[in-house]
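Narrative summary of target 7.
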Amino acid sequence: MNKIRCVAVDDEPLALALLADNIKKVPYLELVATCEDALETLEVINRETVDLLFMDIQMPGLTGTQFLKSLTQRPQVIFVTAYEQYALEGFNLNVLDYLLKPVPMARFLQATEKAREFFSRTKAAVTTAPAEDHFFVHADYSLVKIQVPTILYIEGLKDYVKIHTTVHSRPVITRMTLKNLEEILPAPAFLRVHRSYIIATDRVDAIRKLKITVAGNSIPVSEQYLPQILEVLQVNKHE
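Modeled conformation, tokenized:
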């Protein structure tokens, strides 16, 4: 698998430097940034692709647990803290691991191996399942089954996608790209119509200029995709 992109978060400079150094020593980890507080971390998450946070809990402003609760979608997390009393709250937030300072390198490696196994399982679940029928994605701290015939359309949001279906009460949000889904969804049953959208062609209700209506939702169409869409839908273009 690709390297796990990590951010180290701690308000103590020496602890942050040690954490960053440990990350750099692990071949399958990539240090994206170091941050001293939650707001700085949020800026990095919004700007970069981040898979894993190594985060202290006791920080000025927002604590690590408060920060995680504030996020709608978040990277996976390993807490690194001097305070054992926060362990239960950390695990209630479904963090991957909880490390107590000072962290022996052997214990740090144990946590990173747990992270590597998690990301390997998640990637395998998404890329190897038969897309003709269903596939699994990681969402809401679970592997969620997506039945391909139920998909209406898929919306790309930077490093996430929102999968709209007929059976889920709200979109399934998972960390992957539209390109990933293009590779596993069968064409022409599913077509890319815009840099941010894939549609199920049998769910199209109407098409007008550069807009497609799917299940009552208006979806933009890029001109580069329009000829293929019209061909698949067997529509004659009229100005």
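The first strand starts at residue 4 and ends at 9.
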